[in-house]
């Protein structure tokens, strides 16, 4: 008679249901702060609910949605065992894409996959997500934590999120509003944000630099710099769009692909934006990575934001008011260049990007050199 198989429980298979329940208990308070009046129900339901009657005030509401993750930046959080900032990266990557079209993000959900649920770690990640949602005035209406033993290592995890927003049909921002003569305004990033970390980690590994290494140019350790959370622009930009007399024609979130490619996506065909590098000095982290890995400038500019987290395209008469508004919110701004009719530009002397990510957009040319720090 064959031997009886050893009884295998879910816990023996590597899934700790009790740890998952504890993680939910630990995150409850932070999630409660990331809400809006339209949210129905509470944490723990099968679905998050949002009162759609709030859309009745719109004449022609258009829904906008976005989903994203934070890429390999999570490897830095895991290496440093610090998980409270990665949520800002996730929220910024998702909701700041929605505000590009002028929409107000309303609610967000998150998804965390991990090799093993450590309740305190999961709660720290969700706490950061909730704090960033509250800052962006977005409700965190639900989420999921999935334990994947055997697929992910015990200390490994990844995060993703999705959000939905709304905008009035005749208020949608985009290429159709942009005109020759418009000004290109740069908005400062907080650092690397959440793109290009595969390049950054390769450079750091090749150089043999430890994350706890103090870097004089950065004024802190390498790990502290690399884990700087993504700036979340949504609330500040929405307030700008709603300000009396404000006029913005297009916005661009500078993420994967860099400055030129992302700006080209929101320019109409037949236009040409010339941006002068001499108008800003990239923060030290960008020059440090470039020097440490002998990274060609073209690769740096196509991979990292180079200190520009967002771009606004607006008429010249609206520039001063926009700069005053954003500066009052602690966001550095500067005029980078202008949009022209491509037919009038003639020969170009810089690096030109035409369209990006399947969009038949305008052209963006980078000229000049950055001033020294």
Can you describe this structure?
Helix 3 runs parallel beside helix 4. The protein contains 12 helices and 15 strands. The strands form 4 sheets. It has a 7-stranded mixed sheet with strand order 10-12-7-13-11-15-14. The longest helix is centred in the middle third of the chain and has 18 residues. With 373 residues, the protein is of the alpha+beta class. Helix content is 31%, strand content 26%. It is globular, with a radius of gyration of 22 Å. The mean pLDDT is 92. The chain has 2 domains: 156 residues, PurM-like, N-terminal domain (60s Ribosomal Protein L30, Chain: A, 2-Layer Sandwich), CATH 3.30.1330; 193 residues, Phosphoribosyl-aminoimidazole Synthetase, Chain A, domain 2 (Alpha-Beta Complex), CATH 3.90.650. This is Phosphoribosylformylglycinamidine cyclo-ligase. GO terms for molecular function: ATP binding; phosphoribosylamine-glycine ligase activity; phosphoribosylformylglycinamidine cyclo-ligase activity. It comes from Phycicoccus endophyticus. One of its GO terms (biological process) is adenine biosynthetic process. Belongs to the AIR synthase family.
